[in-house]
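TL;DR need structure tokens for one chain.
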Amino acid sequence: MANVRTAFGNSSKDVEALAVGALGRCGRSAVYLFCKISLDENDTLKRDVAATATEGPFEELLHVDIFVNCTGYRHDSIEASIEALRARASSADLEFDFTEDKSLFTDEHLAKYDAIIFLNNSGIILDDTGKTALQNYLNLGGNFVGVHCAADALRDTPFFGRQIGAYFDYHPALQESVVEVVDNIHPSTAGLPARWRLLDEMYNFQSDPRAVGAKLLLTADESSYSDPGKRLFDHGTPHPIAWYQERGAGVQQGCVAGRSWYTSLGHTIEIWSDELFLRHVFGGITWALASKTTRAFNREGKVGNPPAAV
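>> reply
TL;DR here they are.
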């Protein structure tokens, strides 16, 4: 198996790869994802990483905790998402481990990770101890990524609602729809079609993510699908589908805020075999990791996997 560690040269121009580690859970499974990603000369993440690589080469993996736990609706695509990630990883010398244990949401355990990903979660998936550990992690500069139904999790936890940007309200029937790229420079949307036609759920939200400072990446073309549902909340115009926060709004005042990225896409089994969608998700993950608030790229960071000079 090839080395999947971060590769830095002696100057910013020599930054060639990012290694992403991920722990994910699904049912009785979890996944560690070690992801090697090539970066081109103009990539935003490359510039962010290069700015922190001047002290010399590092060898340690970035660690990402991907949490898949449902107490409400459980998506059939959860297994497909893990299989899709596994298949994508195998061609790039990636490695996986699987386990589940929500009791791992402790200060000590979360401190290992450069980002936490909530993948298709639903319901109240953490107890008070876990919620406190998550808040503490975010307060220390930890990064956050949410995918699809994660916006239906922890509705009893206001800081989580701010961190993810907005809670899910409802969606119309599954149908082919068009989403439009608002930001074609961000790593998670660069290279996507300006009007991206896909089969997925078009989420409506209980608030406007822009109200907590989020910047939109994708919006729904509401004329491309039918939605007979009654909207009880105003999520703003244009219709938000994916967004990011340079500094997550779930962090308590006076603390260090990492990045937050969310996409409402990811419902169907089929979309997890769509290379455009996978590019979208991996772009969001790598962007979040480049926050320079965790140990991976900040030697003063309080959480994350610290780099080892070689």
